Amino acid sequence: MDFQTLALVSLFSPFVSFWIIGVFIRKWGRFSAYVSIFAVFVSLLASSVMLLNLEHLKEPVIKNFLWLPAKENQIYFGIFLDNLSIIMLFIVALVAFAVQVYSLGYMDTETPPSLGRYYAYHSLFTFSMMGLVLANNILEMFVFWELVGVCSYLLIGFYYYKPEAARAALKAFWITKLGDVGFITGLLLLYFKFGNLDIHYLIHNPGILKGLGALGSGILLLIFCGAIGKSAQFPLHIWLPDAMEGPTPVSALIHAATMVAAGVYMVSRLFPVFVEFPDVMWVILILGSFTAFFAATMAIVQDDIKRVLAYSTISQLGYMMAGLGAGSLFAGFFHLFTHAYFKALLFLGAGAAIHAVHSNSIWDMGGLLKRAPVTGITFLIGVLALAGLPPLSGFFSKEEILVYVFNYENKLPFIFLTITVFLTAFYMGRAYVVAFLGSPRSKHAEKAHDPDFSMKFSLILLAIFAIFAGFYAKDIHHFLEVVFHKKGEVSHPSFLMYLSVGLGLFGLLSSYYIYSRALYIAQNASTKFSFIHKTLIRRYYIDDLFEWVYRKILLLLSGFAGWWDRHVVDGIVNWIIYSTARIGRSLRTIQTGVVQDYMIYITIGFILLIVIVFGRF
Amino acid sequence: MVYVGGVVLLMVFTIMLARESVMKPLVNTVRAPFVSGFFAVLVFLLLFLSIKHVELKSSELSKDYEFLPSLIFKTKYVLPFEILSILLLVAFIGAVLISRRD
Amino acid sequence: MDLNALLLLSIILFSFGIYGVLSRRNALGILIALELIFNSANLNFGIFSKHFGNPEGILTIIFGIALTAAEVVLGFAIVILLFRLRKTSQADEVNILKG
Fold it and tell me: Given 1.10.490.10, 3.60.21.10, 1.10.287.3510, 3.40.50.80, which CATH number is that of C3-93?
């Protein structure tokens, strides 16, 4: 089995599953689920084989076929298999597999046709995401980019009968679309300037864009806009918290591990090109670090456990972008790698808790650790990984990012990220203490228990990866060196390690203290600093800003359209009517009823006849 | 003969009825004599100008064709002649029908 | 005779006829003027028949006169009807087809 076949198997297995489920067997809910899970398992096997044999991949595998024939500048679609894409493929396959197995248990209350629809969407998503990863052409990547967005829309709005879910799905689609406008503009400019959108070509000739000077960095920035939208960077982050209206497994897969990581993946894929433009890198860095800080501040006041995790995701995505922007492909991408596992784990664990207490709010939970130990322990593992405590995976990746950001000449991003380390640990600790420790805070919480097998399986699977993924740092570093070789040395001051671990511990311990023993501190703070509290809860009023602008534009356009319709269109019609009536009225006066008048007309006609026929005098 | 009788009758009646006419023309609908005079003059000028430079060759109408109108009746114009007589009949009957008093 | 002079006669009659049709108030007066027009046309036929020596022209005159007679009869009948209905023989007072 060569790599190319494995990649195609991995890619098309969920695609086939999508068609089978979508067309034929949707009404048999559980059977569709098995088909889909089997398909993604096949993908997982294929990508694992590729991953384990990564040593033997000397040259990237490229396979193109002509997609858009033209006289010149044809567009080729194809797959681009190298270390980076294989690793990413594995991440997608693994998390997708875990989530689909988990959904068997979580979505057990769904009716069979609904369940079939769910798994059809899941299969489609897996296919689209893999297509995005394997794409060799920026246009091809954009096609899959949009497909993934569509799947996100479908899955967020899965409970389509809930108006909030429908709104959230639309909002997600719109906001990411806003970023995509930039993406496609950059793409078009690139095509018109070079006639070539081939990724492999671009990576090996990064200098060609430099020839355009400012336009080159403009193009890259525009393409990065797509990543801003998809990876929920400021200011296009507003869709992600609302996207939590979808089922929790969907949130785990799409809005934690894979789809939102597509933006990070895109930057990683084109990293050799981005590196040539320090100003673009600076934008990525400062935007990422600011987003990380910004989102973390909002996470500390959320009561809905999924929203806490959503803001956490935005924050961690900012971390990844910051790592990339600071110049290290390894730092950013490795954090994507570890984050996928522990964030998915956290979401699935949250899902188990929600399933147990029938509520999203952490204040309806409590004491779950004792009653649902598997959930509690795996969730704790996720929390510790996210907080960056060794020896869990999050520690390695977060520390790596901090190193590179620290080495950057401007220290502002570093300050943002450092504060965020504390905030991250604090909000996760708060969520954990309130939801899992202490005594049950509601009726349901008393009767909580561990979920059934399918959900437990995924939790444990992901927990294992969350623990051990960090130890593969060296290997991944080695593989990524082939993709992009970093020049120069960076200093690894050891105080950074102590700083991050120390802040993490401090965050956890302080949240533990406040929320289990000294709740009054939190309550006092929220009343004394009510202005800050309110601002944070209202998400800095940015959603309102977006809505206000949108409404203004919409009303402006519709007002104009209404005016045009009433005055111009109707005006023309009315004028025609009026003129016709007027002409008719005036013509009527010819009919006097007097015979002699008609005789005059006859005479006139006679004269005209003579004149015309016998024109010469 | 018929024709002369008809025209004479027409004139007699005109004179008879002319007495009854009330000399009260509706000015706004009757075109003043000037307008009709204008058109008449216009027509006259038109036709006059059109025949001004007309040069037509002539040929004599031979005398012994005096009887020939009656001969022509016996050639291709018999049918129109018969139809014409029917037409006159129809016209008279129609006139009588129209002006019946009931 | 000079052709043009004869044609001029015909044209003069025709013009008088037109004037009469357009300006007479009495319906019968209009009919008489109409007669004038018809006669001028028949005269025209006769002039040309003599000029070209074509006997068919005379035939046309005969037919024309016959037709004229028929038309006069019918016109007269219509005017009588009109007179009965409208109690007037003024052409300008009969304008119910107005508008």
Answer: 1.10.287.3510
Q: Decide if B94 is inside a domain.
A: yes
C18 touches chain A (CB under 8 A): yes
Q: Which of C58, C45, C39, C44 is nearest to B66 (CA)?
A: C58
| Number of alpha helices (DSSP H) and beta strands (DSSP E) in chain B | 4, 0
Task: Find all residues with CB under 8 Å of A12, minimum gap 6, and list them.
Answer: A127
Instruction: Determine contact, residues A325/A449, Cβ cutoff 8 Å.
Output: no
Q: Tell me: pLDDT of A85 over 80.
A: yes
The domain tally of chain B equals 1
Domain borders along chain C are 3-93
User: By three-state DSSP, how is residue A107 classified?
Assistant: coil
Q: Does B78 touch chain C (CB under 8 A)?
A: no
Q: Is residue A416 within 8 Å of residue A290, measured between CB atoms?
A: yes
CA atoms of A457 and A140, how far apart (whole Å): 35
In a domain, B12, yes or no: no
Please check whether residue B72 lies inside any domain of the structure: yes
> Could you write out the DSSP letters of every residue in A461-522?
HHHHHHHHGGGGHHHHHHHHHHH-PPPS-----HHHHHHHHHHHHHHHHHHHIIIII-HHHH
Taking a C-beta distance cutoff of 8 angstroms, is the pair A106, A252 a contact?
A: no
3-class DSSP state for residue A68? strand
Size of interface B-C (CB pairs under 8 A): 152
Q: What average pLDDT does chain A have?
A: 87
The owner of tokens 């987003």 is A291
* pLDDT, tens digit (0-9, with 9 covering 90-100), for A217-247: 888 899 999 899 888 888 888 889 888 888 9
Q: Which residues of B touch C78 (CB under 8 A)?
A: 98
Identify the helix (H) or strand (E) that includes residue A75: strand A75-81
Please indicate whether, in this complex, the C-beta atoms of B42 and A607 are within 8 angstroms of each other: yes
From the list A227, A50, A61, the residue with the least C-alpha distance to A138 is A227
**Count of CB atoms within 10 A of residue A312's CB?**
26
Domain that holds residue B97: 63-102
Query: Chains near A, with 3+ CB pairs < 8 A?
Result: B, C
ipTM: 0.83
> Which pLDDT does position A457 carry in this prediction?
87
Q: Is B49 on the interface with A (CB under 8 A)?
A: yes
Which pair of structure tokens corresponds to residue A541? 């009023």
* Residue of B11, B30, B41 lying closest to C25 (CB–CB): B30
- Report yes or no: A586 at the C interface, CB cutoff 8 Å: no
E-strand stretches of A36-74: 61-68
Give the tokens for residue A512: 């533990």
Contact between residue A386 and residue A394 where contact means Cβ atoms under 8 Å apart? yes
* B56 lies in some domain: no
Contact criterion met (CB < 8 Å) for B91 and C71: yes
Q: What is the pLDDT of residues A101-160, one digit of tens each?
A: 999 888 888 788 888 889 999 999 999 999 999 988 889 999 999 999 999 999 998 988
For residue A211, give the DSSP letter.
G
Which conformational region is residue C57 in: left (phi greater than 0), alpha (psi within -120 to 50 degrees), or beta?
A: alpha
